[in-house]
Amino acid sequence: MALDNNSTKVITGKVRLSYCHIFEPQLNDAGELKYTTAILIPKEDKETVRKIQAAVNAAAEAGKGLWGGKIPSNLKKPLRDGDEERPDDEAYAGHYFLNATSKNKPGIAKPMGRDAQGKPKFQEITDSTEVYSGCFAKVSINFYPFNAKGNRGVAAGLNNIVKVQDGDPLAGRASVATDFADENFDDDDDYGDDDGFLD
């Protein structure tokens, strides 16, 4: 069965990005350069979850030819439960997640209203600090079957990302603004005056 992009492609609802490497590719475990991001899907977004499950099932059907004519009982599926697999990570609580990758750089943009025909307009994002682990986006992904080194499953391909909202960074360290949010610098001495420093 040939892969039908219409049945294996999903446009998500609002999701959160994590482990986001979308401006520069990273080496994966197989030594391949890939653009990648984890996508955190709120469990209450049942429509996105439904669409992903349907697309995974369609990709699995298309993969029968790779797997000897039937879907393996131990098929690896991309959608995972954050509460079960990342119980110590607050960002993953109440979310499903999957990892999406691409050999080619994804399209990265933000919405810019609508044109005269009512179609959405977009502006490309080239600043790598603007789309980051922790921000919110809508993502275009496609699912495809694989059979590699004895592993059989369905993987998620990363197509395009549209940033829709900022969020607290998930980069592993707090920003300067977060660390010093409660500090009062108004009463401190002139910062540029070195006179008497450590006298």
From TrEMBL:
Residues 180-199 have a biased composition (Acidic residues). InterPro entries: Enc34_ssDNA-bd, NA-bd_OB-fold. Residues 178-199 are annotated as: Disordered. Transmembrane segments: none annotated. This is DUF2815 family protein. It comes from Tumebacillus flagellatus.
